[in-house]
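cron nightly-structures :: item 1 of 1
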Amino acid sequence: MAGFLSEVHALQQQLAMIHGNPLIGLQEAAELLCIRLKTQLVAIWAVPKDDPTCSVLMAAHGTGAAALQRRIVTRRAEDAPKCVGAACSLSVQDALNTTVEGMPEGLTGDKGALRSFVQVPIGAPDAPLGVLLLAKSEPASFDSNWWQVRLQLAGAGLQPHLYHPQIQQLAQLLTRMEDEQDPVALISLLLTSAGRYMHSATNMAASARLALIASAQSPEVPEALVFECPPAAAKAAAANASGTASSGSNSLGSDHRLAPPSDPEAHVIASRLTLVNTLLASALQGQQARFITDCSAYMQSSARPARDVFTRSSQLVSSIVVVPLIAGDGPALGGLYFTFNSPCDFMHIQDTLLGFIHGVTPMLHIKLTGRADLLASMVAQANCSASAPSTSKALSSSLSGGRSASAFAAAAAGVASPTSVSGGGLAAAPSSSLSSSNGTDPSSALRPAASARLSMVSSNPRLNTEAMLQVLQQDLRSKGRQCLADATELSVAEVLGQGGFGVVYKGWWHKVPVAAKVMPARNTEFEALQVATEMAVLSTVHHPNIVSVFSCLTDMVEATDPGRSTSVSGAADMRTRYRRLGANEDPEGALTTYNIVVMEFCDRGTLYGAMKAGHFHRAMPNGAIGVDLAAIVAVLLDVAYAVQYLHAMHLMHGDIKTR
């Protein structure tokens, strides 16, 4: 008895110390239970809350794990209450003499096969969280009552992981991927759900790409077919993930679940990618993730940057990672990319990233192995009349199998070596072997209009300059904001005008004449929000007919340094100087603070002044004074173009006047 109590106590302690990420932790738990309980097989399923009739395999270790992974999702039929993997209790004394529903082939029929099984649901009987299965090669191995105690304790140790939102989200996604037979809708579902998953787990907006290895004209130059969501769909998915979906978003707009129901009309953008000098080739060769933390720094420092950082349809890409999709000893299916619109330290999210990849890789192998070239043919067929010859050529419909290591090594040879600042590799998550085919005809389940929902961008060597421009602009703006924040001193002199929120002065900033709108800090949140909104709008709009804003300075106070109160000539300097309030300065809030908008100084006066000065009048031949309609129309058109620009940004001025 004492030995048994010591055994279960040690098991509880070790289960409590497994990996904190639930997707990785469940696999560690399966390996731990297999060793501690001396069984030949341990498998763990999760039960989705939105569909308790099915179970999703999350981890399997030992003899027969590959056989279980050929069927990720198990559905319990009403006429078969006892089923392997279903949320029910099951005990098999000798599988060689007993027929068990849902028993995968390869578990009981081969030499050295498993013979005794025991299965228990995890969690409350009326709402189980998962299922735990143990198996041994000897018959009647689980007859002892102590096994029920072990199983209940093991199940209790697994409950926190199965209850985790990431497990439920992945189970929901895999269930819907299992139900989807159309590869186009399947890829669309994966891409939108992957971005949502990363946002949910890391609070970082992300977009996903899927690359499938396809046939190439030259066996030594492997190629891939890269799938992405269209920019509008990607933005809608990101908005839904953050709970800010707009009314103009697509069908995902009202569904905030991780895996939305597959949209049969979803469009996916596809492009051909030669794997020479790419992150994907490097990842496939090294069988580990490749990432770039700061794409701007990488592009500026690399003499020959990787060709798959920016695709023809990509938007802002500040960080990127690609993880190879490898299951067991079989050939690589391809890779899954994640891109982020701000620099990201992947070492902080590698567990979440690799856990998700490990979870979806077996399902992707089952559903998409052998379909890359079929998808490419569908794209070519749908675009043959409108695409360039390089994108509309017919492709072979048979997958050429795994590429040789030398081919990927040659393709990856040109990739610039990542540095400690801009990139590197992540250790690949463990994966178990599984069948490389789902045993069905790839074309039998396609909807008739599947190819019409695939669009293809050109595969010519022209680069996406717009995406490069965006990431470099982001980097330069960030550095510019820091530079301006470090030099915030401002001096003002005569008053140029006055409004409801503040006074506009002529001032000097960086020794350049400027117009400075000085606004005292507001006392209520509503008033402060009005000021913040005005500053945000003025600093965002950029148009030739709108006054440029150089900077918005907050928490400014009047400088009182007497040493700076005289001019160069020694005469009294009437300028008022402002400086940024220190971090620990004025804890009581006694000083008056100001928010200041530093703008372009327009020294030609106002439109009202130009009208009074007669700039819109001209002398007539008879000596009379006439109106210069051409000049007036030109000014009004300039104003109209500026207002049109504001309206396009959904902004309304509301106070246009001549002064």
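cron nightly-structures :: done
Residues 180-240+265-380 form a domain with the Beta-Lactamase fold (CATH 3.30.450.40).
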